[in-house]
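lol ok so funny story. i was supposed to be doing the assay writeup but got distracted and ended up predicting the structure for this chain instead. priorities right. anyway since i did it might as well share w the group, maybe its usefull for someone
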Amino acid sequence: MIVVAFQGEKGAYSEEAIMKHYVKVETLPCPYLKDVFDAVESGEADYGLVPVENTIQGSIVRAYDLLNERELKASGEEIHRIQHCLISHPDSSLEDIRKAYSHPQALGQSREWLEALDIEAVNFYDTAGGVKWIKENDVRGAAGVASAQAAETYGMKILARSIETNPENYTRFIEIGYDAPDPSGEDKSILAFIVQHRPGTLVEALREFSERGINLEKIESRPRLGKPFEYVFFVEIAGHILDEVVTGALEGLQKHTLYLRHLGSYPRA
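and the output, tada:
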């Protein structure tokens, strides 16, 4: 049976996404995103599944940084519907709750609901981890914001369901590992590059995609360490690294960049 690492505790949304993505799997909880990468690189896990984007809160930029820093590649994708619940000690009621503990992303996605009830949002390292902490410390005046699976995992009480601000709340995860999937005909690729520091280079670089009819599906910039106000650009494009048109785009891109790296190609979810 394959082992897949994820960031968080048992019952986290990442674990739910793993159960959806794989048929038979053993999950490995990790405290931080970097630990997921470590687990795969060390052989403790076969793959990792990490969040990269949420439809309400935007990009999880740390995942892109780690993908660029490490040798692992993106090799798969899963899109998972996020439905937040307010979860408490079995003896608590909604009127008792003054604080909500959860990951900053989950709190941001539920902020309007929490503010309407004057519940203070308290950042915690993980969604399911907040529920676990409340259970282990027998806390009555606080609740966690997490999945229904987390409530079941830790034997806790669901006080409210679907508290996210917008029901169109989805998180996109990527599988990381050493696999290099063959082209499927419906693929995506992730690239990281640094353009030459002169006017127009980013436009010229992106033109290598548009002139070949390659759809640019996402672009993200991150600070370049040691070079203040210079940036690493992450792009996600339609197509596979082995597609002739993508290969041609990368050859053209090299003319405009100081650094160019392919971070993985995989079938789109």
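The chain is about 30% helix and 35% strand. The CA atoms of residues 223 and 231 lie 5 Å apart.
back to the writeup now i swear
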